[in-house]
Amino acid sequence: MQRRKLGASGPEVSALGLGCMGMSEFYGESDDASSLRTLARALELGMTLFDTADTYGLGHNETLVGRFIAEGGTARRRQVVVATKFGIVRAAGQYERRIDNSPAYIRDACEASLRRLGVERIDLYYCHRRNPDVPIEDVAGALGELVAAGKVGAIGLSEVSVETLRRAHAVHPVAAVQSEYSLWSREPETGMLAACAELGTAFVAYSPLGRAFLTGTLEVDALADNDFRKHNPRFSGDAQAHNRRLVDQLSRFAQARGLSSAQVALAWLLHKQPHVIPIPGSRRIPHLESNARAADVLLDAGAMAELDHLFTPDSVAGARYPDAGFVGIET
Ligand SMILES: NC(=O)c1ccc[n+]([C@@H]2O[C@H](COP(=O)([O-])OP(=O)(O)OC[C@H]3O[C@@H](n4cnc5c(N)ncnc54)[C@H](OP(=O)(O)O)[C@@H]3O)[C@@H](O)[C@H]2O)c1
To answer: Domain 3-209+268-297 falls in which CATH fold?
Structure first.
């Protein structure tokens, strides 16, 4: 698989990473044995960037990724670039959260993530959400100390504004910004992509498949009650019906080229900028294998323009999160 730089001084990683969140929470049932097989297949396919967070399954996801790394011994540890995040504090079973960015919390969270992952160093450590009561300079300073101590390889920020990125970068180089970016979530195009290019910061695109909606295969009515998407405005009522019509057009676009909608959605991101690294989430090997082939798909300028036009920011109905999900999001 083609590779991309994780920031100006960071390691090279696969152009497509693997989002591990759904293996623990938010998108219905999962089972660890099957998830471990998917993780191993991802590595075989050349995917080297594995994305997790302490909040996914309240530690379960990091423990799972840690088990995957441990089962492959030192050879696997050398291949895997593990990215995790801190800052979202939730009670078990609760979606509502508070955000903690205090330096003491960051140091404790880092130790807990290192333990669960079973590694000596987190390759990329993100601030998952911002608490504006703590200056970003203090957050970047605490992260820089973890880098100096050898506990963290590179630092990242998630869902921050361009101003926050610039202020943090002035304290310590920010290797990656991670925010939602896909055909139907275009906010990063209003300044963040350009700022990242200027600073030599990678842009990691999360939920690149619109949480499966863009694949055209999601049956929203069949989702379990505890599936986060049931409460996401874009998946509900009139907004869902409206968005479904866009996705139908995407399906026709993909079919005409012998591709899946997911492959088109991922290829579109890879063509946007050379510093964009999408991290599609998948628990299933067939999805993973099909998605990996998106790294070889070529879209010409006309195809890109057609897709840009189909999913203009104004053409999508509904907010990308319910109200509680916007806590700590600056963008
Ligand atoms: N920084 C943040 O705040 C933040 C927020 C959300 C997510 N993330 C990260 O980003 C990663 C990816 O985002 P995401 O998981 O939310 O959304 P996503 O990648 O847009 O979509 C994942 C969903 O798409 C399905 N899928 C994948 N490939 C498919 C295919 N070829 N055909 C049909 N369905 C397919 C998956 O199903 P299966 O699992 O059944 O394969 C899963 O339900 C997460 O895993 C997480 O690591 C970060």
So the answer is: TIM Barrel (3.20.20)
The residue type at 238 = D
Cα 57 from Cα 321, distance rounded (Å): 19
Respond yes or no: is residue 206 known to be catalytic. Answer: no
Write out pLDDT tens, residues 259-311.
Answer: 999 999 999 999 999 999 999 999 999 999 999 999 999 999 999 999 999 99
The residue whose C-alpha atom lies closest to atom 47 belonging to ligand 1 is 19
Is 142 in a helix, a strand, or coil?
helix
Helices (H), 86-224: 103-117, 136-148, 162-171, 192-199
Distance between CA atoms of 236 and 276, rounded to whole angstroms?
Answer: 29
Predicted TM-score (pTM) of the model is 0.97
Tell me the Cα Rg of the chain. 19
Using the mean position of ligand 1's atoms as its centre, give its distance from the Cα of residue 279 in Å. Answer: 8
Q: How far is CA 321 from CA 68, 206, 218, in A?
A: 31, 13, 18
Work out which ligand 1 atom sits closest to the CA atom of 28: 43
**Closest approach atom of ligand 1 to CA 290:** 31
pLDDT per residue as tens digits for the range 123-167: 999 999 999 999 999 999 999 999 999 999 999 999 999 999 999
CB atoms within 10 A of CB 245: 10
Q: Whose CA is nearest to atom 4 of ligand 1?
A: 206
Ligand 1 environment, Cβ below 6 A: 19-22, 27, 51, 128, 158-159, 178, 206-212, 215, 217, 260, 262, 279-284, 287, 290-291
Structure tokens at 276: 């964009």
In the chain, how long is the greatest CA-to-CA distance? Answer: 54
